[in-house]
Amino acid sequence: MILIAIFLLAVLVRFYNFPNRVTFWSEQARSLVVSANYLKTPSLLGQSYFVRQDSNSHTFYAGALFNYSLVPLLLISGYDPIVITVFFTFLNLFTGWVIYFVVKKIFSKNVAIISCALFLFNDWMIYHSLFIWIYNPLPLLGILTLYYIWKYFKKGKISSIFILGLLGGLGVSLQFLFLSIALAVFIILVIRSNKKVTDALFYSLGVILGNLPMVIFELRHNFYESRTLVQFFLDTLMGKSNAAIAYYYFLPFWPIFAIAGAFLITVLWKKLKILCVLIVSLYFFLNLTSPRINWNAPTGMPIGMTTKDIDNASKAVAIDAEGDFNVAEVLDFDKQAYTLRYLVEYKYGKKPLDVVSYQNLNLLYVLAQTDYDFKRSNVWEINAGGPYNIEPLSGVGEPYTLYRLDKQ
């Protein structure tokens, strides 16, 4: 009954006012654009790390498996990002169930229930369950890796080694820093194994299959991705890259943090029950009142704007647009307006020009602040095709407006 109550409350926390809390902005739109393009032209590459380049101006890419996994969701949902986000919400809830199952099997039922609760009511996990992101499966891979390491140590089956390799390959395809986890698991297995060569081969086979599109791309393109990553790593050592430590690099360890917290609580419960209750109560209070959780609006979008607002603006563009046109926005770094671009083309069937076609443009739609001064704009996407006659087309939440710019 306690477990059922935990999951019911976890579902309520995530789905309360769900359409108005879903985050759909540049990162989500880029992922969906890459996946939608696979329906036209399949690719061995996933989405680019558009803010990460080496000193040779080479961009590296994530594995393609994540974006291919989005393709069925695109078709089922009719390209609606709110419906697609439901999948990631249930993915997060499913990860909580897996944590319960694994911890119960390895340790005890009480530790399992507490671990599950700490994970499901963590503010970061609630936050991540409300948007589409390539890193969102990492906690699930982390707990499954722990489980199959335990299973291998207990039973020594080669199937566990192969599955660990698959998990490692999938992890690397999602996040390159997962390579450190995959290498650590490999070293542990080799040290523990009595059949080192066989086990190493099965693990390596799993890694290859788990990231197969990228492996094929590497073989066909002179190991472009590997060379770019090595150069980026060297640039980082020399202080010439924009690499920085961020919380999301540790997402595979989130279940481990929850399990550690559960052990601490069980130890305290035996000695200091009142202190234990206070700590748990404070944990839930701080997480459920965290600034990362907004009960009425998305986190990570311009203040006052929702996914519905973006959808309505995209619909307005599709209804109004005739002939060649393009879209832009000035609210952040994404001047090519991938949020508008995705919805206008794939949900509403009007294709903008590509992300470099802003010169000699007759019609441009711009998402901007209501008081935005176009005459003083330093945005290339706006200035390249001007001068324009500017008029508001539609409101997009307060204080934003969708503008129509016609060539003078």
Structure description:
With 408 residues, the protein is of the alpha+beta class. It has two domains: 2-253, no CATH class; 307-407. 58% of the residues lie in helices and 9% in strands. The protein is built from 18 helices and six strands. The strands form two sheets. The protein has a four-stranded mixed sheet with strand order 3-4-6-5. A two-stranded antiparallel ribbon has the order 1-2. The chain is globular and about 75 Å long. The mean pLDDT is 93.
Brief overview:
The protein folds into 2 domains: 2-253, no CATH class; 307-407. Helix 5 (81-106) packs parallel to helix 8. The protein is 58% helix and 9% strand.
List the helices and strands and how they pair.
Layout: H1 2-15, H2 18-21, H3 26-38, E1 48-53, E2 59-61, H4 65-77, H5 81-106, H6 109-120, H7 123-128, H8 138-155, H9 158-174, H10 178-192, H11 196-210, H12 212-220, H13 224-237, H14 254-271, H15 273-288, H16 307-320, E3 326-329, H17 338-347, E4 363-369, H18 380-383, E5 388-395, E6 400-407
Parallel strand pairs: 3-4
Antiparallel strand pairs: 1-2, 4-6, 5-6
Helix pairs in contact: 1-6, 3-4, 3-17, 4-5, 5-6, 5-8, 6-14, 8-9, 9-10, 9-11, 10-11, 14-15, 16-17
